[in-house]
C-alpha cells in the first residue's frame, strides 16, 4: 500500500456496525479503575489517553518502513518532545553532539539548562556531515536536516552508522520534512522527533510534537519521561491532529511542488542574493537530499541584499502572510533575523509554501521583489 492510502486508512476506526468512522476526542482525567489496575490501558490521562493512542498509531504507521514497525509517542509541543529525548538519554558527564545551526530553542535549552547540569556539548555545522568528527565518546548525536532556517543537509544514514560505531545514540529533528518526506528510523536513527505544530497538522491551530522509535526500551524510557514531567497533549489537540493528518499527503504534495517552483523562480531573479532550498540542483546538499527525502519540503530561505529590502518585500506582498512557524495551508514568510539568535544575514527571509495556486504566488512574489528593488534603488 502507498503512503497516502495507508495514512488515510490509519485514521479510521475498526469497522464495527453502528460505530462512527472516525475517532472523537476523549475528554477525561481519571478513567474507571476498580480494584487491581494492572493491565488497564487507561487509568489517568497524564499517562495515556485513547485519543493519543489513535494518533500515535497513525504516526507510527508513517514512521514505519519495510523491516520494522515504529512506535510513536505524542507530546504537548515539539519542544516537549525534544526535551524528552535530552532528559531521558543524557546524564551528567555525557557528551551531546549538536548542530551549531540547530533550531535555536533546542540549542538554547541545551546550553542554558542541560550544560549547567553537567552535559558536555560539542557543536559542529550540519553541512558537510561535520558532526561526524566529534562522535568519539559521545552519548547522543542530535541531527537536524533540512535545518531551520538555513536549509543545510547532512547524510542521516552515514552519520547514524558512524555514531553507532562510536556507541552513540542518534536523534533526528525531522520537523521540516515530516515522516512522509523523510524516514529517519529507516535511515538508521534511533529517535525521529518532530514538531507536529508545523506540516504534520498544517492548519496553524495547535501545538504538538512526537517521538518515534523502533526500540521498546527507548519507548518505555520516553513514555515514563512524558508521564513524570506531564508533557501531555490535550485530547482536543490530539483529535484535531488526527483529522489533519489524513490530508497530509495532499497538503505535502501541493506545498512541496509550490516550494520547488518558488525556489526555481527566486533563483532566476537578480534581486535575490541566494536561495537555500534542497530541491535546487545547485544546493550543496541536493544529492544527499534526493537520496534520503521523498519530498524536499515546503520551507526555503532566500536572501535579499539588505534588511530594508526584505522588510519592503514582505510589506508589499499580498499573499505571503508575515508570521513565524511554517508548514501551513497558506504561504507564510518572515525576516528571520528579527528574532536574533541565528548567524544569518539581515535580509534572509524564510518562506513556507502553502497550497494556493502557484500562478498567484509567483505573480505576487514578482511584484513584491520589484517593489523592494525600487526602494533599494531610491
Ligand atoms: N524543531 C524545529 C526544527 C522547529 O522549527 C520547531 C519550532 O519551530 C521546534 C522543533 C519546536 O516545536 P514547537 O514550537 O511545536 O514546540
TrEMBL record:
Protein name (Swiss-Prot/TrEMBL): Cystathionine gamma-lyase
Gene Ontology cellular-component annotations: cytoplasm
SUPFAM superfamilies: PLP-dependent transferases
One record GO biological process: transsulfuration
PANTHER family, alphabetized: CYSTATHIONINE GAMMA-LYASE-RELATED, TRANS-SULFURATION ENZYME FAMILY MEMBER
TM regions (residue ranges): 72-90
Pfam families assigned: Cys_Met_Meta_PP
N6-(pyridoxal phosphate)lysine PTM sites in chain numbering: 198
Family: Belongs to the trans-sulfuration enzymes family.
One GO MF term attached to the UniProt entry: pyridoxal phosphate binding
